[in-house]
């Protein structure tokens, strides 16, 4: 094959590839953020939403919440004891949002937000701010209850079938007397079969 | 003697009527089986289920057969029985829709909750209203087959 014919053939191939790439249409559409998501059996949006809603509703009619006048809670860590990466903060954030929206509890700043809180307090104590409107030191309110828990998973796989079981356990502890005031669990099982 | 007997009989009838009235009047007006029904005419469990259960998306063969509500403080507690009378396992998703006193949405749309029902079986789903503003509800079902 002559050099000119080789170049021509190469150019034609490149043009064909470019055309094919152009024809493979990519489509993006908005979906329902609350739909049941079953793309894989890893921890997903549906699991997060189910766990958060179930726990928040259960906590709402716990005697300690139902009979108290706006009890103050703080959120501690939900330990991830599963074999995969799960942002457990997203679970507690969703529970907190649901409870706060229901207007039956209040939340005190938690350990994760303490640095920002104290920095802001210190900043307002500087000479940059009007003293009469600045937030005073020593006025923060401590929580009466702390929320903590853990999430575990059991994964089993035989040939083409993979079974995943998640269990989220949450506990509400009375900070003053160390009593467990409420506890509940949410279980989820997902099975994926190939072929 | 005869007069005394008449009075006693009348008293017995009155007591009986009072007893029946108390039994009949046990349900608050605007409620059926503990569930809020507003102005709807509900005289049986089937009527209540028809009023409260809505199908959206793909229709499921799963039937809600019973529904009971109770007050948990200011919140509404709901139990709904779902029945799969087919010979195969069925999958569906459900959610509750919360309605306030003005008939507006009292809460954000809930996530769909997937569920599996074994063949020829019943399953009770339960929930509690997320806020005291929610005074009415609908149970929404869709097939996930």
List keywords for this structure.
A: 195 residues, alpha/beta, Rossmann fold, flat, B: 145 residues, alpha+beta, globular
Description:
The complex is a heterodimer of chains A (195) and B (145). Chain A is built from five helices and five strands. In chain A, strand 4 and strand 5 form a beta hairpin. Chain A is flat. In chain A, 21% of the residues are buried. Chain B has 145 residues and is of the alpha+beta class. Helix content of chain B is 21%, strand content 40%. Chain B contains two helices and nine strands; from the N terminus they run H-E-E-H-E-E-E-E-E-E-E. A four-stranded mixed sheet of chain B has the order 3-9-6-7. Chain B has a three-stranded antiparallel sheet with strand order 4-5-8. A two-stranded antiparallel sheet of chain B has the order 1-2. In chain B, a hairpin with a 2-residue loop joins strand 4 and strand 5. The longest helix of chain B has 23 residues. Classes of the chains: A alpha/beta (195), B alpha+beta (145). Chains A and B meet through helix 2 and helix 4 of A and loops of B.
Summarize the structure.
The complex is a heterodimer of chains A (195) and B (145). By secondary structure, chain A is of the alpha/beta class.
SSE map:
The complex is a heterodimer of chains A (about 200) and B (about 140).
Chain A: H1 3-23, H2 45-60, H3 63-66, E1 72-81, H4 88-102, E2 106-107, H5 114-124, E3 145-158, E4 161-174, E5 180-193
Parallel strand pairs in A: 1-2, 1-3
Antiparallel strand pairs in A: 3-4, 4-5
Chain B: H1 2-24, E1 31-32, E2 35-36, H2 45-52, E3 53-55, E4 63-72, E5 75-84, E6 90-99, E7 113-117, E8 121-128, E9 136-143
Parallel strand pairs in B: 3-9
Antiparallel strand pairs in B: 1-2, 4-5, 5-8, 6-7, 6-9
């Amino acid at each position: 094959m002559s050099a000119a014919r080789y170049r021509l053939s190469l150019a034609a191939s490149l043009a064909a590839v470019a055309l094919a790439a152009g024809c493979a249409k990519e489509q993006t559409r908005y979906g329902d953020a609350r739909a049941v998501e079953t793309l894989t059996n890893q921890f997903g949006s549906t699991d997060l939403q189910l766990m958060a809603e179930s726990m928040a509703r259960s906590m709402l009619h716990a005697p300690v919440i139902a009979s108290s006048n706006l009890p103050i809670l703080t959120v501690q860590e939900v330990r991830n004891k599963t074999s995969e990466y799960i942002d457990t903060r997203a679970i507690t954030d969703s529970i907190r949002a649901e409870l706060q929206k229901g207007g039956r509890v209040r939340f005190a700043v938690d350990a994760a937000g303490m640095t920002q809180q104290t920095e802001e307090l210190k900043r307002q104590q500087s000479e940059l701010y009007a003293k009469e409107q600045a937030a005073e030191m020593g006025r923060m309110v401590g929580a009466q209850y702390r929320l903590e828990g853990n999430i575990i998973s059991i994964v089993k796989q035989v040939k083409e079938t993979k079974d995943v079981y998640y269990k989220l356990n949450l506990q509400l502890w009375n900070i003053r007397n160390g009593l467990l005031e409420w506890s509940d669990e949410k279980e989820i099982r997902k099975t994926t079969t190939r072929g | 003697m005869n007069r005394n007997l008449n009075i006693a009989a009348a008293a017995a009838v009155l007591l009986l009527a009072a007893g029946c009235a108390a039994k009949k009047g046990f349900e608050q007006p605007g409620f059926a089986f503990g569930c809020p029904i507003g102005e709807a005419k509900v005289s049986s469990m089937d009527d209540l289920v028809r009023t409260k259960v809505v199908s959206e998306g793909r229709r499921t063969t799963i039937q809600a057969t019973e529904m009971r509500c109770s007050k948990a403080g200011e919140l509404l507690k709901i139990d709904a029985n779902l029945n799969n009378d087919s010979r195969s396992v069925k999958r569906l998703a459900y959610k509750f829709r919360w309605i306030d006193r003005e008939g507006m949405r009292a809460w954000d749309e809930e996530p769909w909750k997937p569920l599996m029902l074994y063949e020829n079986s019943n399953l009770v789903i339960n929930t509690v209203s997320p806020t005291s503003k929610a005074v009415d509800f609908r149970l929404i079902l869709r097939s996930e087959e």
